[in-house]
């Protein structure tokens, strides 16, 4: 069983949580939270960036993007449905199934929290595949597009997790350990949300940006999607070593494996397979 020291570190290793209200603004009785804005911003900014990629036909295989640039705003509606439905079902199935089997009405209570990034990823991939098929485009190229823009949503989503003071890490003596207001033990902890924002969001975006605009990876259908899968899975697995697992699931298989690690492995394998397929196809 993986355990963490409960000894209090010196004050120099305790960073107070910044005073950020999880509610961005309120209109009468309706409160708009940063978390909701992160989802909305991820879709809108991702669609705007995706439109610029689609408009540059020289980036794509045979000069053919999976669909016309303006059509991505139609896909944005599909994306929201895919993220919400996939994210919720992923959480229900993998993180708290016994509770929802006993309380099926809670499945639709998304306002009470509980979303899975892996489920949301599966949902938006399914939405993209169906949308591209309706347009008669190349599905692998559309998944490449998705890989190129998804990092924006991941970056904003992880920052929103930090604002919500949720999904934080294990106790740490490092100078940047943060004391989260939602932590009952009030210990300085790894700001694992920021680690993921930096790795899954910013760093992976830069890597893929290099691949699309310097290495012209979009000309090899499946390659960018594979790079995204590998980058996301490795980043998530690495951070899982210092991130606390969901309390209702805990650690698995020897006391150190988490559900996040397990769900990331198929993404890693699929990413490797796509990279190999894309490169073999070019050689052929």
Structure, described:
The protein is mainly alpha-helical and 284 residues long. The chain has one domain (22-283). It is built from 8 helices and 5 strands. The chain has helices spanning 34-55, 72-95, 97-102, 117-135, 139-163, 192-213, 223-240, 259-283, and strands at 15-16, 23-27, 30-33, 178-179, 188-189. The chain has a 3-stranded mixed beta sheet with strand order 1-4-5, with no helix packed on it. The protein has a two-stranded antiparallel ribbon with strand order 2-3. Strand 2 (23-27) and strand 3 (30-33) form a beta hairpin. Helix 1 (34-55) crosses helix 2. The model has no long low-confidence stretch (mean pLDDT 90).
Number of helices: 8
Overall structural class, as computed from helix and strand content, comes to: mainly alpha
Strand content: 5-15%
- Give the low-confidence spans: none
Keywords:
284 residues; mainly alpha; 3-stranded mixed sheet; 57% helix
Short description:
With 284 residues, this protein is mainly alpha-helical. Helices cover 57% and strands 5% of the residues.
Set out the fold topology.
Elements: E1 15-16, E2 23-27, E3 30-33, H1 34-55, H2 72-95, H3 97-102, H4 117-135, H5 139-163, E4 178-179, E5 188-189, H6 192-213, H7 223-240, H8 259-283
Parallel strand pairs: 1-4
Antiparallel strand pairs: 2-3, 4-5
Helix pairs in contact: 1-2, 1-5, 2-4, 4-5, 5-6, 5-7, 6-7, 7-8
